[in-house]
Amino acid sequence: MSDDWGRERVEPDWRSERVEPMAVGPPRRRRTRADRLREARGRRKRRLASGLALGILIVVVLGVVFLGSKLWHGVFGTGSDFTGDGVSDVVIQVHEGDSTTAIGQTLQDQNVVATSAAFVSAAQGNAAISAIQPGFYKVRTEIPAANAVERLADPQNRVGKLVIPEGRQLDDIRDVKTNAVTDGILSLISKATCVDLDGERNCVAADALKESAKTAEPSALSVPEWAIGPVNAMGDDHRRLEGLIAPGSWNIDPSAPPQDILSTLIDASATQYAQGGLLDTAKAMNMSPYQILTVGSLVQREATPEDFAKVARVIYNRLGENRTLEFDSTVNYPLDRIEVATTDGDRGQHTSWNTYVRPGLPATPICSPGQPALAAAEKPEPGDWLYFVTIDKQGTTLFTRDYQQHLANIELAMRNGVLDSSR
């Protein structure tokens, strides 16, 4: 092609004249093989971390679901229950303040019922369960919840219930006139531990309890601090524990060893004595709690309730004048018997308790005094009496300070047959 002037025209080549793009920023570094390997490892680590987190989350969720299911079944239940007559006898404990749910949990833990909820459902509206007393009960393992309710509601299935009357001593005692034997505290404990389990009778023997009373360390028997000295002074005589088990109603575990049974009773008794004000009163009277306990035991054995406070006053008056107490009850105590009129030979025996020959109080209490006798020991009636004697079989007791009058009162008692010896 030519232009108007006959010259050849040259068409512009647009491809050769295009402007090359200009780079912006620092020059790009060329990626190496190592860079690509690092990037690949990073991606694998991120995928691994994500998978691990997901796995942990799944485990946590499953755990929550499992525990929630267990909680739901244990607390609210699903109606699961045992069937049949059970497998074996077992003793369970109902604690002070236990709710029906708490009792059900104890039964579930001991494999008595399948679930606590089943027991709660079966016990709903049962007045006997609502009013159940703390203590020990015999039931069977793997029984229907309704059966467990029936057993706990039956008084015959309560075991380990101990009742100690006021004035009992540790050992059995025999009445000289009638030969009747009165169970001592050790025998009462032994009988309270008896329970039939799967057709076999199980009891803690009184001799085993006596052995523990003799040999166990006072601290292992929960002897209170205020009684440690007198208890240690008695050596291995089991009577060192006399008076430290208070009268009243107690619950004892029939399956516990002898030492634990004694420890439980002594500890609970010490608490009862303290709550009754024994320690505070002793301090106010400038006496030890053990001395007041001993005075209370003498009052319990020597008098009837209407004369408790007067007899306590006689004791303090005689001690204050350094007179021997001369109580027949202290003569009888180590002989394990009851007798109003002791013999000259008995009164002449040197024992740790005989107040005809021993000055002051006996070495230990001679029984477990009740609260009225203790109250009299803590607050004796005002008076100057030094002597007293029961003059008839109705229990009339005369008090005096005059010795000649006392001899006349004794003569009256003898005429009425009160002081006749059976030997």
Explain how this protein is built.
There is one protein chain. By secondary structure, the chain is mostly helical. Among the domains are: 89-158, Endolytic murein transglycosylase (Dna Ligase, domain 1, 2-Layer Sandwich), CATH 3.30.1490.480; 173-385, no CATH class. Helices cover 43% and strands 10% of the residues. It has 16 helices and twelve strands. The strands form five sheets. The protein has a three-stranded antiparallel β-sheet, with helices on one face. Strand 5 and strand 6 (181-182) form a beta hairpin. Helix 3 (116-123) crosses helix 5 (145-153), helix 6 (185-192) crosses helix 7 (206-215) and helix 7 (206-215) crosses helix 9. The longest helix is centred in the N-terminal third of the chain and has 44 residues, at 33-76. The chain is elongated.
Spatial separation of the terminal alpha carbons: 171 Å
Q: Spans of 5+ residues with little confidence (pLDDT < 50)?
A: 1-26, 69-78
Give the strand content: 5-15%
Report the average pLDDT across residues: 88
Counting copies of identical and different chains, the oligomeric state is single chain
Total strands: the figure is 12
The helix content is 40-55%
Shape field = elongated
Strand order of the largest sheet: 1-2-3
Radius of gyration: 43 Å
Membrane topology: Single-pass membrane protein
GO molecular function: lytic endotransglycosylase activity
Keywords: Cell membrane, Cell wall biogenesis/degradation, Lyase, Membrane, Transmembrane, Transmembrane helix
GO cellular component, one term: plasma membrane
